[in-house]
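hey so i finally got around to running the thing on that chain from the lab meeting. sorry it took forever, my laptop kept dying and i had to restart like 3 times. anyway pasting the input first so we r on the same page abt which one it is
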Amino acid sequence: MIYHLFDLLKDWDIPGQRLFTYLSFRAIFASATAILISLIAGKRIIRWLQKKQVGEEIRDLGLEGQMQKKGTPTMGGIIIILSILVSVLLFADLTNIYIILLLITTVWLGLLGFADDYIKVFRHNKEGLSEKAKLIAQILLGLSIGITVCFSNDIVVRERVETETGIQESALAEDAAGPGTEGVKQWTELDVEKSTKTTIPFVKNHEFDYKWLSPFKGAMGWYCKWAIYVLMIVLVITACSNGTNLTDGMDGLSTGTSAIVGVVLGIFAYLSGNILNADYLNIMYIPGTGEIGVFMAAFVGALVGFLWYNSYPAQVFMGDTGSLAIGGIIGVCAILIRKELLLPILCGIFLVESASVLIQRFYFKYTRKRYGTGRRVFRMAPLHHHFQKENVPALITWPGKAIPEAKITVRFWIIGILLAVFTIALLKIR
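ok and heres what got predicted. didnt touch it at all, straight out
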């Protein structure tokens, strides 16, 4: 709103007015505002949650210090969502299609998580929303985002290609025009590219086109490639949302790890939205995505402020209200800046946590069916709980002793930072 207010008053020559035209300035203010809102409003929201007796239901799983957390307020994701929304509404360009999609994602998954937490806390149903209901809601969001990416003329990619006259900014007419134009290449500066290309590491041009997966050509191939792309978008959003939710099992673990991921995605968004930086790094130039940097700055600020209360020992848990929204934001942001194929590296913590649950369930069911008694790969899943247990029969017995929760969290953060640095380095590794 402040951004649009100064834009309306641009002819008034107000001192400092031009500062709000700079993405970096607005990103800094969005981040600082989100931190302050988390700190100030967070304290009051925690008191309100305590007054309403919105306490976490704890099952005794034999983990160190676990039962001491009983009664700790949950649904703290409200603090994160409030901080993000207020900061973005103040400092971002609300006409930008990428900001609109991220705001929809935040509200959609925030409400989904809130409904799940509400059922658990107020209706005393430990199961909350069914997995089917949550999956349907996530798929609907993914389809909405995917269809928008496919059909919105505001979401385009421009790239540098070699022509007979050298290298120039251009677009492929067949992708912009639709079915029936395959094989017709018009290299002009006016055309825009509705592309299914994305970024992939370790190859010369850092590009992968989903149309390569299509078994058809011509008009059918055009429709098929977009269908594949939409399915990929749905998969990424669903996986990221659920992966963050599974990681939210220790004080500050999901919050800190997500903040690290948010910093990297914000950097990528800023670079992709700046034609000079994109040209220097030889990456896709995606007009308008620089504004995502403002959103991700608010996102990181909100998480850092929330970490003030969520660090060990936690005064509040984010609950599904926060974890589902955080994962969805990460997934949608990666899709919009065409970096979704980097997520297995950048979000390696979330990937391993999710994989540990799937492996544990599959192996337990398999051994129970074959031997009559279920066996475990990990002492406990998700993976972070494996390090808290000892003297539990499992295929993996390292480490020999249980590790304190705070140490596990910090070590996961360190691994997250290493993955983040490596992901950024991939911009130059070809």
